[in-house]
Specification:
The chain is an alpha/beta fold and about 525 residues long. Among the domains are: about 150 residues, NusB-like (N-utilizing Substance Protein B Homolog, Chain A, Orthogonal Bundle), CATH 1.10.940.10; about 220 residues, Vaccinia Virus protein VP39 (Rossmann fold, 3-Layer(aba) Sandwich). The protein is built from 23 helices and 13 strands. Strands 5, 6, 7, 8, 9, 10, 11, 12 and 13 form a nine-stranded mixed β-sheet that branches. Helix 6 runs parallel beside helix 8 and helix 15 packs across helix 22. It is globular, with a radius of gyration of 27 Å. The N terminus is likely disordered.
């Protein structure tokens, strides 16, 4: 299992920074190396104590704020089915963490969530009962401790001491003793040694990859299948799984014609190498940048930027003759599944440049509000938001749009690096449940596009059940549709000009190849 290896916050905590334990000999202790205490009594225990460098009275009894944030994130994910990327920023602000501690809390939260399956396999060998019999709060504290010990630059004694202190403060003295005993056992081996122990005697390559790279076995199989389905080698599976475990770089986009990256670049961001108007952030609180607060610069994965630009750039067939008084030049665009609004904002800015208009549709009212907020930086006469079922748009607005983006609800298997908890939540049943909705939304988009217009079918998943199978099923029943070369269009909107994402007229981006989310794109033209 690969992790980012911690950060400056992690090394500082283990090397005398805030939270580092004090020396092993308490005030007033013997200076002659004996085991007698200050009162002259002989202590019936070894002088060298392996589990911590502190005497019991000196061990931490408070929750370090950064570790407390990580614990609260894991508890929200576990108990409330929350999303870590939504909970983490609010907890960081609530506890007033500075940039260093925020970075530590982020790595600890995401790392413990990503590695959960492997860490639980290790813990199962160190706990004297099945893990499902542990209080969930204790298990979350143990996961936090294991990640510090095995995958961050935190000395074992500091990780143990601080995790026990956290447990004392937020769970109780009794559970803290259990946590102390279990984490002492974890420190007996390095991560690589534990992995060797876990896979010893295993012959199933899927099981081995699942343990080594902290992915459920069904996802390992699904990703291997996805690689082959999109024209890549199954031998890339370990690289793909490892890329899922790397801490993602924050991608920024300046809305074309509206935003600027100057402020971000002045604060440590670097220009993006794949798409125009993008940048890679050095981290920190992006909310302090005025352009981000105003919405003219946004956080958005470069894969999402590429597919949105591809939809806007693809050549259309000529329109049918316009009726009297009709505007023969202004294009009408549709974002059929717009929430929470990231792609809609980019499409709105591109529509503004091209003299087009955008209708953004979102069925959930609270998410529709997020779409409006995301579009607030775009001139108001360019866009409007519809709140309603996307499956009805094709019937209500038949052949009304020149370009349609249908970014369907999907399993999210392409964004596991950004949503660390989702790999443990998703099941194969999700693929089966989502399939009918994905097909219905694509059919609605095709009904809504005019003859000669283009539909961009997009998923943040490489799984063939959500990508090529959906497109093939819908096109098989129609003779008025044609697939365009999505790979060539992506190359045309990229700075490199040769992404190599195309296969059988569709395109698939990959974390281990393109450093993007695993976005799928099919471009479908309705014949004029």
């Amino acid at each position: 299992m690969s992790e980012s290896g911690g950060n400056a916050g992690g090394s500082g905590r283990g090397a005398g920074g805030r939270g580092a334990p004090r020396g092993g000999r308490g005030k007033g202790g013997p200076r002659d190396g004996s085991q007698r205490n200050a009162q002259g009594r002989e202590r019936n225990r070894p002088a060298e104590r392996s589990f911590t460098g502190s005497a019991p009275s000196e061990r931490t009894r408070r929750a370090d704020p950064a570790r407390l944030v990580a614990f609260e994130v894991l508890r929200a994910v576990s108990a409330e089915d929350a999303y870590a990327n939504l909970v983490l920023p609010s907890r960081i602000r609530h506890h007033g963490l500075d940039k260093r501690d925020a970075g530590f809390a982020t790595e600890l939260s995401y790392g413990a969530l990503r590695g959960q399956g492997t860490y639980d396999a290790i813990l199962a060998r160190c706990v004297d009962r099945p893990l499902d019999q542990l209080d969930p709060a204790i298990l979350d504290a143990l996961r936090i401790g294991v990640h510090q010990i095995l995958a961050m630059r935190v000395p074992a004694h500091a990780a143990l001491d601080q995790t026990v202190g956290l447990a004392r403060a937020v769970i109780g003295a009794g559970p803290s003793a259990l946590i102390n005993a279990v984490l002492r056992k974890v420190t007996a081996h390095t991560l690589e040694e534990w992995l060797e122990l876990l896979v010893a005697g295993e012959t199933d390559e899927t099981r081995i990859a699942s343990l080594r790279y902290a992915h459920p076995e069904w996802i390992v199989r699904a990703m291997r299948q996805s690689l082959v389905a999109h024209g890549r080698s199954a031998s890339e599976i370990n690289e793909l799984l490892e890329a899922d475990n790397a801490a993602p770089v924050v991608n920024l986009v300046a809305l074309p014609g509206l935003g600027s990256l100057d402020e971000a670049l002045e604060n440590g961001a670097t220009p993006g190498e794949l798409v125009e108007g993008s940048a890679l952030s050095s981290g920190g609180d992006l909310g302090r940048l005025s352009s981000v607060r105003e919405g003219s610069t946004r956080v958005q994965d470069v894969g999402s930027q590429l597919v949105a630009r591809a939809m806007a750039a693809v050549d259309l067939a000529p329109r049918p003759a316009a009726g009297p008084g009709a505007d023969a030049t202004e294009e009408a665009w549709l974002d059929l599944c717009a929430g929470p609004g990231g792609k809609a904002a980019l499409l709105g800015a591109l529509a503004n440049q091209k003299g087009a208009t955008l209708l953004a549709n979102e069925p959930a009212p609270h998410r529709a509000k997020l779409v409006s907020q995301a579009l607030s930086a775009v001139p108001r006469d360019v866009w409007r938001v519809r709140t309603g079922d996307g499956r009805d748009v094709g019937t209500e607005h038949p052949e009304s749009f020149d370009r349609v983006l249908v970014d369907v609800p999907c399993s999210g298997l392409g964004a596991l690096r950004r949503r660390p908890e989702s790999r443990w939540r998703r099941t194969p049943k999700d693929l089966a449940d989502l399939g009918p909705l994905q097909r219905d939304l694509l059919k609605s988009a095709l009904a809504a596009v005019r003859p000669g217009g283009v539909v961009a079918y997009v998923t943040c998943s490489p799984h063939p059940a959500e990508t090529t199978a959906v497109v093939t099923d819908v096109l098989r029943k129609r003779d008025d549709l044609e697939l365009l070369d999505a790979g060539a269009v992506l190359d045309g909107v990229s700075l490199t000009g040769h992404l190599g994402a195309g296969h059988d007229s569709t395109a698939q981006l990959w974390p281990h190849i393109h450093s993007t989310d695993a976005m799928f794109l099919a471009l479908i033209r309705k014949k004029a």
